[in-house]
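Late entry, iron/sulfur cluster complex.
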Amino acid sequence: PKPLVQVRNLKMYFPIHSGLMRRHSGDVKAVDDVSFEIRQGETLGLVGESGCGKSTVGRAILRLYEPTAGSVVIDGDEVPALSAEALRKKRPVMQMVFQDPQASLNPRMTVADIIREPLDEHTTLSRDEKLARVYELMDQVGLNRAFANRYPYAFSGGQRQRIGIARALALNPKFIVCDEPIAALDVSIQAQVVNLLEDLQERLGLTYLFISHDLSMVRHIADRVAVMYLGQIAEISPRDALYARPLHPYAEALLSAVPEPDPSREGARQRIILRGDVPSPANPPRGCNFCTRCPKVMPICREVEPRLIEAEPGRQVACHLVNPSPG
Ligand code: SF4
Ligand code: MG
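Prediction complete; structure with ligand written out below:
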């Protein structure tokens, strides 16, 4: 089956202006040549440390930012090429669930108003039909209908995230970018929200890009995982293969910090501590972006940028140590 989402050579550069004349003096390469696909009904986890560009990828593919370059095909449409009106018509298909439900919900609107807003904007449903849809959505995300006329402040963080999810579902999307959807929530309710997202995916056939720095949670929810470092993808692998045996040295270091859920295997993996700081995305190193910190760095790494290639069936890695699988 064709992937629902195809991202090719995506770049998102933010210009830097400096000096008295505010001259353009360079670019922050927040996303620098990123490619991946997401199949229908799949969850692709996108992980990496804060500042690696993962949130920017999510915003650029939904065109909340205008990408600098690259192709993003979502459900058959080249999103960066859409006119303003075509983009507006496309919005229902592709939605976002934000990290901070507090900041993304208008405090002066009731829950019903918040969930109804996309219906007002994109449908010609009658008042009663909209209300029925709002109630249906509240049921789907586990919010009591009796709360429809309350304001966001009356809710807990987990309930507010349910409101945000209900609004994202209002127009029957196919693809949802979940940007750190549980990072702002108490640990005790994180699993509830993740389980809700999984349940909705199954019932509604949704496709997710799940952006998170929480590698244990990503292990739970993702089918495949893309690991980002300094604006680029280091590795994309099926979840189990990645967590069992990461191929890219950065993925190896990142995952070495994740607690091993199987106690019989605890201690099998050594924690890898990386030295040095992540370089600035305004001035990434020559060659491999990871060469300044990689425990396995070789001379070629400081000269030649490794391309993301298929290292094993279904696994793509950008590292000179990894040879492509034969055939
Ligand atoms: Fe390390 Fe070189 Fe591989 Fe980059 S290309 S991850 S520096 S071994
Ligand atoms: Mg980020």
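The chain has a mean pLDDT of 93. Will revisit in the morning.
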